[in-house]
Amino acid sequence: xxxxxxxxxxxxxxxxxxxxxxxxxxxxxxxxxxxxxxxxxxxxxxxxxxxxxxxxxxxxxxxxxxxxxxxxxxxxxxxxxxxxxxxxxxxxxxxxxxxxxxxxxxxxxxxxxxxxxxxxxxxxxxxxxxxxxxxxxxxxxxxxxxxxxxxxxxxxxxxxxxxxxxxxxxxxxxxxxxxxxxxxxxxxxxxxxxxxxxxxxxxxxxxxxxxxxxxxxxxxxxxxxxxxxxxxxxxxxxxxxxxxxxxxxxxxxxxxxxxxxxxxxxxxxxxxx
Length: 273
Ligand code: 2HA
Ligand code: ZN
Hints:
Elements: H1 4-7, H2 9-27, E1 37-41, H3 48-51, E2 60-61, E3 73-77, H4 83-88, E4 94-99, E5 105-110, H5 120-132, E6 139-143, H6 146-151, H7 162-168, H8 172-177, E7 182-185, H9 193-203, E8 208-211, E9 215-220, H10 223-245, H11 255-264
Parallel strand pairs: 7-8
Antiparallel strand pairs: 1-3, 1-6, 2-5, 3-4, 4-5, 6-9, 8-9
Helix pairs in contact: 5-9
The structure holds Dihydroxyacetone (2HA) and zinc ion.
């Protein structure tokens, strides 16, 4: 069977990167069974031939109206599909979708009828916001990083800024590579519009947001960038956990040490476009 990648070779690099990251997610233990999902905006690769591709399944509803997404194209992981399978066979475990002109529905155009992720409302809400703000970010990632999810079971860490401060203070790299910190989304039903709306509010300020007792959602220039930010935050959570397992509360870098790093390295406080 002919794949969309056969005549859009530029797309291959994006899909290869998604496959590489999904392999990491599995290796890290963050992607049990079908856990987690990904979308990447691939509209830049849509030539006339791709735009003319017919739908291969009936139109489906997103559950929200997202005006910026009219005519855009996304690669989306399939619902119920495993990250570890996607790493080897990305076009059988994910699909290319086109958002219809009503901005409220989508159709699958390639390669196979693989229904997109159950968290599509959250992913597309974030993608809509990124376009609305002129961001260069193309990728959204949802995954279940063990130590971060564990921390979200302690109400102390769900207060604004507390988890961010704890994580930043574990190791300077966390501050450098996740400079916006971690937003908090109180528990909502997975896949719900409520979860999508609450995520959207937090993603305005943060590149990575914690879904209480569930996982994280991250945005990035590409899927590797989104993954890296989650990875550095989870590394800090792991250091926190190791110290606790050794029987002590980690001291953490001082407020001054944190501020010095922010100043010396001119770390952004807002998402750069
Ligand atoms: O796709 O992780 O939140 C499976 C999930 C839903
Ligand atoms: Zn999940």
